[in-house]
Inverse folding.
């Protein structure tokens, strides 16, 4: 069976990456692409690397144009998806790559985003544990999927095994991330100009203000089976001059009585049989270059007994495993297709 697809926000980075991956999917027909200010223009004018989709023209983003497809992907700025999802009730599967349907707490939404609050959808990170089961079990047959925030899923995947196994204390987490500017979208912003980024590293959203913090707390609380109040995190992202990628370095205290073997076993148990989340051998740590273009999260684990903390270093491509790849992986599960269809663990090098 072939599923018809519409992709909104198709002229942006996330929309373009969704299209790049879907173009290689044997069960998908990309029928419609939409945009706002770029409507009426050829898709390849904005996504010149998508040569197989050169026949498509960007249409207006309206509920009428998006409806009538088997699957709709929304790759819109935060706060803009809800106005469309309410009107797509007859669409069999909707996947939102924005934040509108990620959070379960309206208080958290109001504090970090503001605007209208929309019902939470099934969270699109299959490898995370929720209520004792991998999230993929909740994604099977889902009709509404909230794709993750790239930073949030990277930190959550980094620490969820230790939190779930009770070998680290989730009340004192520190995460510092080196991130590429493509995660901020394609809209022109002066601080993202090449002349502002090249040759420097720039911290942003410092001091507990980043919008992905409640999403991380929500995911880790679900993994641990505790209230979100038990998760405390200091989260600092730093823009660095690479187009794609996240390198997240996260630390948390070791709980009393947890041995080195207990700690390593927690991550091996969580990801030992996973395709797209892989724990590296002891003493090895990933680079962002190793996951470029891949739907892979690579994790390096260190046990610092002098500081009594676990350090987890995780690399992802923010546009693939961080966004579009996670969305398509979740779509595959929802449709009963092989989870890895149209996705690869192989990066691009050099």
């Amino acid at each position: 069976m072939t599923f018809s697809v519409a992709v909104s926000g198709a002229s942006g980075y996330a929309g373009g990456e969704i299209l790049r991956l879907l173009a290689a999917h044997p069960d998908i027909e990309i029928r419609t692409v939409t945009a706002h200010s770029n409507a009426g223009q050829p898709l390849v004018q904005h996504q010149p690397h998508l040569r197989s989709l050169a026949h498509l023209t960007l249409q207006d983003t309206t509920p009428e144009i998006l409806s009538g497809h088997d699957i709709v992907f929304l790759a819109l700025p935060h706060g803009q998806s809800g106005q469309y999802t309410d009107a797509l009730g007859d669409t069999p599967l909707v996947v939102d790559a924005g934040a509108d349907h990620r959070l379960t707490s309206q208080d958290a939404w109001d504090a970090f985003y503001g605007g209208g609050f929309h019902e939470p959808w099934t969270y699109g990170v299959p490898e995370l544990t929720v209520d004792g089961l991998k999230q993929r079990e909740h994604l099977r047959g889902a009709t509404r999927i909230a794709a993750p925030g790239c930073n949030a899923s990277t930190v959550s995947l980094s620490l969820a095994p230790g939190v779930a196994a009770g070998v680290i204390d989730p009340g004192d987490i520190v995460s510092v991330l080196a991130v590429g500017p493509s995660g901020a979208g394609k809209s022109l912003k002066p601080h993202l100009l090449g002349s502002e980024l090249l040759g420097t590293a720039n911290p942003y959203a410092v001091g507990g203000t980043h919008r992905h913090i409640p999403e991380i707390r929500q995911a880790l609380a679900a993994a641990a089976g505790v209230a979100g109040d038990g998760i405390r995190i200091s989260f600092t992202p730093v823009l660095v001059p690479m187009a794609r990628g996240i390198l997240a370095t996260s630390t948390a205290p070791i709980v009393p009585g947890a041995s080195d073997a207990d700690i390593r076993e927690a991550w091996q148990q969580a990801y030992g049989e996973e395709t797209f989340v892989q724990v590296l051998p002891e003493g090895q740590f990933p680079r962002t270059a190793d996951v470029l273009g891949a739907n892979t999260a690579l994790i390096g684990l260190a046990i610092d007994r002098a500081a009594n903390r676990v350090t987890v270093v995780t690399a992802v491509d923010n546009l693939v495993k961080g966004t579009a790849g996670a969305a398509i992986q979740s779509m595959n599960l929802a449709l009963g297709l092989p989870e890895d269809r149209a996705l690869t663990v192989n990066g691009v090098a050099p």
The longest helix spans residues 150-165. The CA atoms of residues 205 and 236 lie 7 Å apart. The chain has a mean pLDDT of 95. The radius of gyration is 19 Å.
